[in-house]
Amino acid sequence: MDEDEVPTSWCPSGEAHAPEAVVLGVRSGQDGAVVYLADPVPASRVLGEVPEGVDPRRILRFASHCVSGCVNRRGDDCTLVERVLAKPPAGAAGVPRCHLRTRCQWWSQSGVDACRRCPAVSTRHRADDELAELIADPATTREQLDAWIAAEAG
After folding, report:
1. Could you tell me the pTM of the whole model?
2. Percent of residues, the chain, with pLDDT higher than 90
3. Where do the DSSP E strands lie in the chain?
4. Which residues contact residue 83 at a Cβ distance below 8 angstroms, ignoring those fewer than 6 apart?
5. Are 120 and 90 in contact (CB under 8 A)?
6. Segments forming the whole domain that contains residue 36
7. What is the mean pLDDT of residues 56-61?
8. Would residue 145 count as lying in a domain?
9. Which helix (H) or strand (E) holds 136?
10. Alpha-carbon distances of 51 from 54, 55, 138, rounded to whole Å
């Protein structure tokens, strides 16, 4: 890398059809948590293998470049990771091994807390998952998430 070259940050909840997209992991188990791949696999090599009628985001997590026009972008920050961090972690979540970490926007912005919650993130969630809908909505504020979580807990 040249000294003048700015490294590209990557979104761990990226677009599957972006030219540079890679498969970050596979959703598995009852909870649908992501199991991360040891090495990146170009999304273009995998998308054609997904059965017709199955949304690839249901079974795979993709990473792609962070882009300035993203609805989750505020300056240099990702507001999606801010909303993801509002959700309490599920149990004693460890930090997954991830090939993306050194270039990950979420890691550079929020560190290990983002990594602990990342396996639970889905780019395609069930329609009846109200909390996931709130987290995915760029218009949702942290205060709204805190209020929803408090109401569910109380």
Report:
1. 0.76
2. 25
3. 10-11, 22-28, 33-42, 60-65, 73-74, 77-78
4. 134, 135, 136, 140, 142, 145
5. yes
6. 10-81+95-124
7. 86
8. no
9. helix 130-136
10. 6, 9, 30
Query: What is the reported pLDDT for 107?
Result: 94
| Structure tokens belonging to residue 100 | 């993306």
- Rounded to 5°, the CA angle 71-73-78 comes to 120
Q: What value does the mean pLDDT of the chain take?
A: 81
Reported as a single tens digit per residue, the pLDDT across 69-120 is: 888 888 889 988 988 888 777 665 678 888 899 999 999 999 999 988 888 7
Count of structural domains, the chain = 1
Name the DSSP letter for residue 97: P
Q: CA nearest 113: which of 88, 133, 131?
A: 88
| Residue 54 located in a structural domain | yes
